[in-house]
């Protein structure tokens, strides 16, 4: 009986402990093709970088989902085929007449050019990127979200580039001697599982660009200046040197601009 009494006491204590410290719930699965970036704080910018990367400042972000890969030609064609044939804004979304565009229209349908289905969509404007994201029920990343994800979020090891201190491991860039963007996901991922956040294609962000914004940025979920002329781009491209492949490096261009090394990725709020 003493043994049974001790056993029941043990069970009682165990149940009480579990009730006070319930097991951590499993996280919901991310939407297909996306990774969860847990909320947290990080040091945004770089004192060793360009002037527009200073001052380094603490930013705290809520959790969000971000595309594992840059949005591909195949994905963007799905968007165009649902919206582009009826929408008068198609010419502001994508410069399909540029020979470097990897999408063509044949028999009334938008299709990736042969062999380019899984390459990042390029020749896409900020307006086209934003419209795609809205169609998917999401949005473009803020500049702060983009940098946090590129650094590896709360799992960051502090690499110079997204996933490594060695650009050639994670980035398609000028040194690769390519003639166009590469298929997504060829290089290794960063700490949270995103690919190509250094190199391949510059990525549009939601924010207006301001060189001195870091000196006035909000510390919690900053969304950038309220107005501007250019939008932020991040990550560098297959045409870039390593300096702009760094996680903290900032770029900018007018939102209507398109080129063969400008793309984007999607963010969805949990």
Brief summary of the model shown:
The chain is of the alpha+beta class and 270 residues long.
Strand order across the largest sheet: 9-8-7-10
Total tally of structural domains: 1
Highest-level CATH class: Alpha Beta
Structural class determined from secondary elements = alpha+beta
Number of separate strands: 11
Query: How many DSSP helices?
Result: 6
Tell me the overall shape.
Answer: globular
CATH topology: paralog of FGE (formylglycine-generating enzyme)
Largest sheet: 4 strands, mixed
* Name given to the CATH homologous superfamily: paralog of FGE (formylglycine-generating enzyme)
Query: Under the CATH scheme, which architecture would be assigned?
Result: Alpha-Beta Complex
Compute the CA-based radius of gyration.
22 Å
SSE arrangement:
Layout: H1 2-20, E1 34-37, E2 40-44, E3 57-61, E4 64-67, H2 73-83, H3 90-93, E5 103-106, E6 109-112, H4 126-135, H5 143-151, H6 167-170, E7 202-208, E8 231-234, E9 250-253, E10 262-263, E11 267-268
What does this structure look like?
The strands form 4 sheets. Strands 9-8-7-10 form a 4-stranded mixed beta sheet. It has a 3-stranded antiparallel beta sheet with strand order 1-4-11, with helices on one face. It has 270 residues and is an alpha+beta fold. The chain has helices spanning 2-20, 73-83, 90-93, 126-135, 143-151, 167-170, and strands at residues 34-37, 40-44, 57-61, 64-67, 103-106, 109-112, 202-208, 231-234, 250-253, 262-263, 267-268. The protein contains 6 helices and 11 strands. It is globular, with a radius of gyration of 22 Å. The protein has a single domain (26-268), classed as paralog of FGE (formylglycine-generating enzyme).
């Amino acid at each position: 009986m003493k043994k049974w009494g001790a056993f029941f006491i043990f069970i009682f204590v165990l149940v009480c402990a579990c009730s006070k410290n319930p097991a951590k719930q499993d996280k919901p699965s991310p939407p297909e093709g996306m990774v969860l970036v847990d909320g947290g704080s990080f040091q945004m910018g770089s004192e060793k970088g360009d002037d527009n990367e200073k001052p380094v400042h603490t930013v705290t972000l809520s959790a969000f989902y971000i595309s594992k890969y840059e949005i591909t030609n195949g994905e963007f064609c799905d968007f165009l085929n649902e919206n582009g044939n009826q929408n008068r804004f198609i010419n502001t979304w994508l410069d399909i007449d540029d020979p470097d565009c990897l999408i063509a229209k044949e028999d009334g349908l938008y299709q990736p050019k042969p062999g380019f289905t899984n390459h990042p969509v390029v020749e896409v404007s900020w307006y086209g990127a934003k419209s795609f994201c809205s169609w998917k029920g999401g949005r473009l990343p803020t500049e702060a979200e983009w940098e946090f994800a590129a650094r590896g979020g709360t799992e960051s090891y502090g690499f110079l580039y997204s996933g490594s201190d060695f650009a050639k491991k994670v980035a398609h860039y000028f040194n690769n001697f390519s003639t166009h963007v590469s298929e997504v996901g060829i290089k290794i991922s960063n700490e949270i599982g995103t690919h190509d956040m250094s190199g391949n294609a510059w990525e549009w962000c939601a924010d207006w660009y301001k060189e001195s914004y870091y000196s006035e940025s909000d510390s919690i979920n900053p969304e950038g200046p309220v107005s501007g002329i250019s939008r932020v781009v991040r990550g560098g491209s297959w045409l870039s040197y390593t300096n702009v492949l760094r996680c903290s490096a900032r770029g900018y261009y007018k939102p209507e601009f398109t080129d063969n090394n400008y793309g984007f990725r999607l963010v969805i709020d949990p």
